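Hi R.,

Here's the input for the zinc ion complex you asked about:
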Amino acid sequence: MALVTTKEMFAKAFDGKYAIGAFNINNMEIIQGVTDAARKHNSAVILQVSRSALKYAGPKYLLYMVNAAVETTGVDLALHLDHGPDMETVKVCVENGFTSVMFDGSHYDYEENVAKTKEVVEYAHARGVVVEAELGKLAGVEDEVNVSSANATYTDPDQALDFVKRTGVDSLAIAIGTSHGAYKFKGEAKLDFNRLETITNKLESAGISNFPIVLHGASSVDADCVALCNQYGGKIEGASGIPNEMLRKASSMAVCKINMDTDLRLAMTAAIRKHMGEKPSSFDPRGYLGDARQLIQGLVEKKITDILGSVDSMK
Ligand code: G3H
Ligand code: 13P
Ligand code: ZN
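And here is the predicted structure with zinc ion in place:
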């Protein structure tokens, strides 16, 4: 029983028209909540670690806890660096047993993104590690998205083809209207599915078939969860996420990896606030962290069954 890469997961997900959930991890309770949910539904899952999570917990703690989850649950797990900023961070992760890394060069100009991504691909592939890259800019809630701004910030399909050919990446995160955090849309939620389809068609026509696309900023920001936070003293106003039916649609298309962090943060916070609110005399961390773990498990189970469609995806 060992960590796996995302290669086989994505090949099966593309064929089966479903997606694998990629959940950000920061501590033991999140790892356990996510992997217990995956085990219950016989689903593969990706555990991903941001640069700030690496700093918070340390790569060794994360690796050892994730390996404990592999041994305990038997789930097909990939350990992934999320938004890797540079080669140095990529190296730390590869040296610490990560099976997948993202290099996020989306803020560089195009040629620099190509060059830096290519360097990461050469380093990682030589060590059996797969690479995700990013092209295009994820929208912010303040961004007014009209046709010309979408063309300026969303992933350009011709560039996507060129990027994949020149870098040799294993998967590509694209910008089609999602954004990070709990405040994704001011008005109506809108994703550019035509652009996603065009990107896939261009790749297919060039002989790059079944190429896995990644959707970042894909939390649905469940209204009940936000309400629970607010009921117990929170102040989260105007939050909105990606509607579940859009995520289902993306999963049935070329999107093989769906990234969620905000939903886990909200669930954890809601459970802890509720625990504290209802049991003011409680001060045992296992009480409130246990509640948080349970709510996270329930949330991830729903993602697997109702959105991702990855039930029984384990080999
Ligand atoms: O995409 C970003 C993730 O939500 C990670 O956030 O850097 O605060 O850990 P973080
Ligand atoms: P959310 O903020 O929508 O959860 O997105 C997380 C993400 O994309 C991590 O890379
Ligand atoms: Zn992201």
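One thing worth noting: The domain at 7-308 is CATH 3.20.20.70 (TIM Barrel).

Cheers,
M.
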